[in-house]
Write a structure and sequence with these properties.
heterodimer; A: mainly beta; six-stranded mixed beta sheet; 9 strands; B: mainly beta; seven-stranded mixed beta sheet; four-stranded antiparallel beta sheet; 49% strand
Chain lengths: 108, 118
């Protein structure tokens, strides 16, 4: 079965840039998206179709996807960005959905 | 504004069947633009996709759960449902329903905690 791998944790200082990676075989051939989940809340879609920001998501969130790696970048990270982040891919042939294991972002 | 609301028992005994319903408001479940899905999250752990359903009734399920999962749709009530059979403590999780416009889940319910315990 298809697997997505994320680092368990990433730390960043306020105002700096945070990058969270998601790796999977030929992930660049699929659409990747990213969810933010704060404690006790439902996940929120922050990046879809590799790099599109849904309405209401701040411009500091951006995404890219190429080769075997998708990356979520948060520029000018704020304390409110501290959360768990999950990548997700969709297999167009099987319609299967796969989530990465999640990355805890800490803003120190 | 689209809203999804999960409902069902919060406690299920081992070996029994977990049953949940997701009620959709603010959009029609018969829209040809969307799938509707179930995702779960064990306490302190990550997200796990359970399966999706199209309004026609066509389902796509996680291969690791496939034999235990049944997802159905009731278009007259604008609802879709999940049944997970032969549950064990490992099925204890927050269960979410969500809308899937093909590539990703854009709207999620608030989630409901289901505990498997005797």
């Amino acid at each position: 079965s298809y697997e997505l791998t994320q680092p368990p944790s990433v730390s960043v200082s306020p105002g700096q840039t945070a990058s969270i990676t998601c790796s999977g075989d030929k992930l660049g051939d699929k659409f990747a998206c990213w969810y933010q989940q704060k404690a006790g809340q439902s996940p929120v879609l922050v990046i879809c179709q590799d790099s599109r920001r849904p309405s209401g998501i701040p411009e500091r969130f951006s995404g890219s996807n190429s080769g075997n790696t998708a990356t979520l970048t948060i520029s000018g990270t704020q304390a409110m960005d501290e959360a768990d982040y999950y990548c997700q891919a969709w297999d167009s042939s099987t319609r299967d959905v796969v989530f990465g294991g999640g990355t805890k972002l800490t803003v120190l | 504004q689209l809203q999804l609301q999960e409902s069902g028992p919060g406690l299920v005994k081992p070996s029994e069947t977990l049953s949940l319903t997701c009620t959709v408001s603010g959009d029609s479940i018969t829209s040809t633009n969307y799938y509707w899905g179930w995702i779960r999250q064990p306490p302190g752990k990550g997200l796990e996709w359970i399966g999706n359903i199209y309004y026609s009734g066509r389902t796509y399920n996680n291969p690791s759960l496939k034999s235990r999962v049944t997802i159905s749709v009731d278009t007259s009530k604008n609802q879709f449902s999940l049944k997970l059979s032969s549950v064990t403590a490992a099925d204890t999780a927050v269960y979410y329903c969500a809308r899937l416009p093909r590539y990703n889940f854009d709207y999620w319910g608030q989630g409901t905690l289901v505990t498997v315990s005797s």
